[in-house]
Every structure is written in C-alpha cells, then in structure tokens.
Specification:
The structure is a homodimer of 129-residue chains. The first copy, chain A, has 129 residues and is mainly alpha-helical. Chain A has a single domain (13-114), classed as Arc Repressor Mutant, subunit A (Orthogonal Bundle). Chain A has helices at 2-24, 27-33, 36-48, 54-58, 65-77, 96-113, 124-128, and strands spanning 52-53, 81-86, 89-94. In chain A, strand 2 and strand 3 (89-94) form a beta hairpin. In chain A, helix 1 (2-24) packs across helix 6. The longest helix of chain A is centred in the N-terminal third of the chain and has 23 residues, at 2-24. The radius of gyration of chain A is 21 Å and the shape is elongated. Chains A and B meet through helix 1, helix 2, helix 3, strand 2 and strand 3 of A and helix 1, helix 2, helix 3, strand 2 and strand 3 of B. Chain A binds a DNA duplex (30 and 30 nucleotides) through helix 5.
DNA sequence: AGCATACTTGCATAATGGTGCAAATACGCA
DNA sequence: TGCGTATTTGCACCATTATGCAAGTATGCT
C-alpha cells in the first residue's frame, strides 16, 4: 500500500515535470542563443556586468549597428535581456541571475522528468538484451 | 595588501570564467535545440527514460522518418544524444545527467563571469544618473 | 542468395534567417 | 523650430535550414 502510494506520487511528479519541461524548453530561447553574434553580445554583457547602450555594445563588432539592434531586440523578446530607454539611449542589460535560474530550472526539470533510478543510462537497454 | 591580493584573485577568476563561458555557450548546442521538432524528441526521450529506436521515436510524429533521423543525428553531433547500433536498429538515448550538468555549468559560468556584488542588477546604471 | 526491415543520404524545393543600406522615428539641445 | 545623435524599421539580397521523396546502405531471416 505504501509502495503503491509512493509510485503514484512519483508518477504525478514526473507528469508535472514533463509539462514543466515542455514549458521550459522553449524553441524561442534557444533560437535567440544559437547565433554567434548574439552569444558574443551576451558574453560581453555578462562580463561587463552593467547595462550598456546599443552603441557601446556595437563597438568593436564588425557588423552594422542595425544588426546589433536586431540581435538585442531578439534577445529581449526571448527574455534574456531587459531594456530601458533613457533619453536618446536604450540600455540593454543581462539579468545574470535570472538566466542562470532558468538554466538550472531546465536541468532540474530534465532530471525530475526522468523516471527514477533505472533509466538514467543511455546504454541500459542494449545491455539487457 | 590582503585587499589587493583578493581583488587580483577575483579578476583572475572572472577572466577564467569568461573563457569558460565562451566555451560553454556554444552556438552548435543551441542550434540543435532551437527546433520544435527536435525539442519534442528531446522531451520524449527524457520522459521515456531509456534509449529508443528511430522508428519508435518517430511514431506519432507527423514528419517523415528521414526528418526524424536527421534531427537525431543533429542532436547526437551536438552532444545531446548518444547512439548505438544493435542489429538493424539504432538506439538513441539522452544522457539526462550529462545535459543537466552542462546547463548547470553554463549557469555557474555566467555567475562567475559577472563582476562580484554590485553589477547584478540591470537597472543600476539608470538609477545612478 | 534473395527478400524484408531499419535507417541514412542525395537531391530538389520551399521556408526561414542574417545582413547592409537607406529611410524613419525618437529624443535632446540650442 | 531646426539640427544632430541614437536607435529602430523597411526592404532587397544572399545564405542557411527544413522537408519529403526516392534511392542507397546495412542487417537479419529463411
């Protein structure tokens, strides 16, 4: 009885994890991160540690400023960056903790979704048969 | 003196973190994950918890099996899935722990790269001026 | 060997994405 | 208001990617 109740709880937990996983693994986020130029911007903002204007971010980039602007907009729409306008300037900033939390949530959801114990190895099935 | 030594260490740590970050944030990985179909496959394999054949994975997918096969190959090349052949079948499996570890490493690198303390808030700069 | 099954690959096509230039918009300042 | 600066947007072009179909390869079975 205890055993059955426990299994039921496990199944529920996995089910919730599955929906969570599907929500967390959004194509849009990965889409935003899959371009080298955008990743470069992300890295810059992470290391710089403060929000910067489009012009500042574009400095040293070989691409047109309009491209940088579009990259930034895309990262903002994906929830990676936040922006705020101040005078003529638009400051884009990376909320490191937010992004880190999102990545860790994905990791957690992946593990929670996975059936407990047995099935964590890729090659298990081959070994059996 | 102690203060200076500490700052130097912090700078070193951030510098290492920056290179690590650049290595971890690989476009290829995000590239592999940015397609809805591939994410669906990933989710299935995560929840199923064991490696499956191409045919099994393709069941219920509306796309051609050749597309599934290509998606799987792409995920394998990105280091997300591993595969092994057994008879006529090819088993693709997700190593959940490996992927989760990769995501957490990204989160750690992001935080390590960020200058300590002050600069974790996006809107700090606007508040100053 | 011959045939069936499982998967991959070549190829053509359609869709999507990245880029630069030029024009438009938004704003501050005199 | 008029001008200069910062950023975004429209548009055309080129490159990349996704897809389905058909053909190819690899393997098991009789």
């Amino acid at each position: 009885m205890v055993q059955i109740r426990k299994r039921t709880r496990d199944r529920d937990r996995r089910s919730v994890a599955a929906t969570t996983l599907a929500e967390l693994l959004s194509p849009a986020l990965f889409r935003a991160l899959c371009d080298p130029g955008r990743l470069q911007i992300l890295g810059r903002l992470a290391c710089c540690g403060k929000s910067c204007t489009v012009g500042e971010i574009g400095e040293g980039c070989e691409v047109d400023l309009s491209v940088v602007s579009r990259h930034l907009a895309m990262l903002r729409e994906a929830g990676v960056l936040s922006s705020s306008k101040r005078g003529r300037n638009v400051y884009y900033g990376l909320d490191v903790d937010r992004l880190a939390a999102k990545l860790r949530a994905m990791a957690d959801a992946l593990e929670a979704c996975c059936p407990p114990g047995a099935a964590r190895r890729v090659d298990e099935r081959q070994r059996k048969s």
